[in-house]
Specification:
Layout (H helix, E strand, L loop, with lengths): L1 H65 L15 H6 L6 E8 L4 H10 L24 E8 L17 H13 L3 E2 L3 E2 L7 E9 L9 E8 H6 L7 E6 L6 E5 L5 E5 L8 E7 L2 E9 L3 H18 L4 H54 L6 H24 L5 E2 L15 E4 L4 E2 L1 H16 L13 E11 L2 E11 L11 H15 L2 E6 L3 E9 H5 L1 H11 L7
Parallel strand pairs: 13-15
Antiparallel strand pairs: 1-2, 1-6, 3-5, 4-5, 5-6, 7-8, 7-11, 8-9, 10-11, 12-14, 15-16, 16-18, 17-18
Helix pairs in contact: 1-6, 1-7, 7-8, 8-9, 9-10
């Protein structure tokens, strides 16, 4: 009997030790997994917010760069920029033109506002109180034009922002620093309107030291920084720069409110994003208590272990199975984290490359002395060509683009007059971007004049792949028939650089262009290994493959 009791006691003790060990292991693993998942979800959200902010700040910079500061005050100041602003398809609430008016320009400004059809052209304070022009001795910032025009916005032009503490501080800083600046959170459109942030980009005329005005874009704060999925692991708040210890949060309907931070409820993590020349701090609060959840899971495991102490084999089987399951989950999640990091790094690399190309396009197109109307159309067309090839690459998961797809009507002008022949090869992402800009430049200059026979030139685009030496070579030929050097407009400086240097160097090949007796010809030769770039395709395929646990 004593011996049996000893055995039962030994089994009970062994079961208790094993149950406690299993509970401790499960507690640590669940806690670690929850923390890893929460940290990664926070990093992804902060990265998406930063990308969103970067896109909107880029819009303000591009708009200010395209804006042609007038020598006199005119109505409909945003008319030249309207197509460019909406081409970016951002979710701004209002885009506005705020001019710095001298005292002797107020009468002309009122006439311009009235001529534009706004109901109240009087120059007035931000709270609609009248301003005595005789008391004005310094330039003031006045809203002259805006987009979109609606019942909520038509009454805004004519307001001076010098008395508004938020907008005045923003415009003063933008004027001093001469770069885009974001405001503090403030109600938009009206006092009880949605809370948002305004970014102002100064417009400095050529040869001037002070801005003639500011192009502004306002965004709702909820959709800009505080949006989140209902199924996410956290809620997000923005540190209120206007109030020490204050936070801005958004509800399910997107309404933003202010609350004070509680000392006992510190955020699980904080991240800093940059927008408008200033840093914004996001606080992330976990929706579930990871420690409590891990403790509950550990208690359940221990209870099961104690309940089946007599079943030693079953207990060992359960613990082994549970450990194997948890181990595989950890391996899958670790693999997923590594894969996600690689995807983010690859995305950042490609976004930086695309932004660098766009910056080069903007700089070359808007060079000193360029015609603003022609430059604007070329800039929009070139950016549209880049947007089209990025869309095609996204549809193929960056596995390459069919070469014939770059000749679609949505990608280049006059596509209906281009006869395309050649094998339908899939070119790499890098080659597709270079070739898309190359085809746009060639097509955009093919309709500048009538041909020798009084008709638009007939265009042929053909390519072949030949075996030469140790590898294959890609040959591309563009020919505009019935065209002479006298009837075809010379290529732009940007076009010459792209045709003669950028595109050939990007593909590791050579190019030449010349006129025959009745045609214009451009030829490009490059090795197929750079046109197809299997290394890039293998890398993209590797990071997009599904994650599987290690055996």
């Amino acid at each position: 009997m004593v011996r049996l009791g000893f055995i039962i006691g030994f089994i009970a003790l062994l079961g208790a030790l094993l149950s406690g060990l299993a509970a401790y292991r499960v507690h640590d693993q669940e806690l670690a997994l929850d923390r890893i998942a929460l940290a990664r979800a926070i990093d992804v959200h902060a990265s998406l917010v930063q990308d969103r902010l970067t896109e909107r700040e880029l819009l303000a910079r591009v708009a200010s760069g395209l804006f042609h500061a007038p020598s006199v005050i005119k109505p409909n100041m945003l008319e030249p920029l309207r197509s460019a602003i909406y081409a970016f398809k951002t979710d701004f609430v209002v885009a506005g033109w705020i001019a710095r008016l001298k005292p002797n320009e107020l009468d002309a400004a009122q006439a311009a506002i009235a001529g534009a059809g706004f109901p109240n052209p009087t120059i007035r304070a931000y709270d609609d109180k009248p301003i005595n022009p005789a008391e004005i001795t310094q330039p003031i910032d006045v809203l002259l034009d805006l987009e979109p025009r609606s019942n909520d916005t038509r009454a805004l032009p004519g307001r001076s922002y010098d008395q508004d503490p938020v907008r005045s501080a923003m415009l003063t800083r933008a004027r001093i620093e001469k770069k885009s600046v974001a405001s503090d959170p403030t109600p938009l459109l009206r006092g009880n309107g949605p809370v948002g942030i305004i970014v102002a980009a100064p417009v400095i005329p050529e040869g001037a030291t002070e801005p003639a005005g500011f192009v502004t874009f306002s965004y709702e704060l909820a959709s800009l920084m505080l949006t989140n999925d209902d199924m996410s692991l956290f809620s997000v708040a923005l540190r209120d720069p206007r109030k020490e210890g204050g936070e801005l949060v958004a509800n399910d309907q997107g309404a933003v409110s202010t609350r004070m931070m509680a000392a006992e409820a510190a955020p699980s993590a904080t991240r800093t994003v940059s927008f408008g020349g200033r840093d914004w701090q996001l606080g992330y609060y976990a929706k579930t208590n990871s420690a409590r959840r891990a403790e509950q899971t550990a208690i359940i495991v221990a209870a099961i272990g104690f309940a089946i102490t007599a079943m030693v084999c079953g207990l060992f089987g359960y613990v082994a199975y549970n450990n194997l399951r948890l181990s595989r989950e950890i391996q899958v999640r670790i693999g997923f984290e590594r894969r996600l990091t690689a995807v983010i790094d690859e995305l950042n690399h490609r976004v930086k490359n695309i932004l660098a190309v766009i910056q080069s396009i903007v700089t070359r197109t808007l060079r000193h002395g360029a015609d603003i109307d022609g430059a604007r159309e070329l800039l929009i067309g070139r950016i549209h060509a880049m947007s089209n090839v990025v869309s095609l690459l996204s549809e193929s998961q960056w596995q390459g683009v069919k070469l014939k797809g770059l000749f679609e009507a949505r990608a280049i002008p006059h596509a209906d007059r281009i006869a395309v022949t050649g094998p339908d090869i899939a070119v790499s992402a890098r080659a597709a971007q270079s070739l898309s800009l190359l085809f746009f430049e060639l097509a955009s200059h093919s309709d500048e004049g009538l041909s020798l026979v009084g008709k638009h030139p007939h265009i042929t685009a053909s390519w072949t792949v030949t075996s030469e030496g140790t590898g294959e070579v890609f040959h591309f030929r563009w020919e505009e028939l019935n065209t002479s050097e006298a009837t075809r407009r010379p290529d732009s400086d940007f076009g010459l650089i792209l045709l003669d240097r950028v595109a050939p160097e990007a593909l590791g090949g050579t190019a030449k262009r010349y006129f025959t007796e009745a045609s214009y010809v451009y030829e490009l030769t490059a090795p197929m290994e750079t046109v197809v770039d299997m290394t890039e395709r293998d890398r993209t395929d590797k990071i997009s493959a599904p994650v599987r646990p290690a055996r």
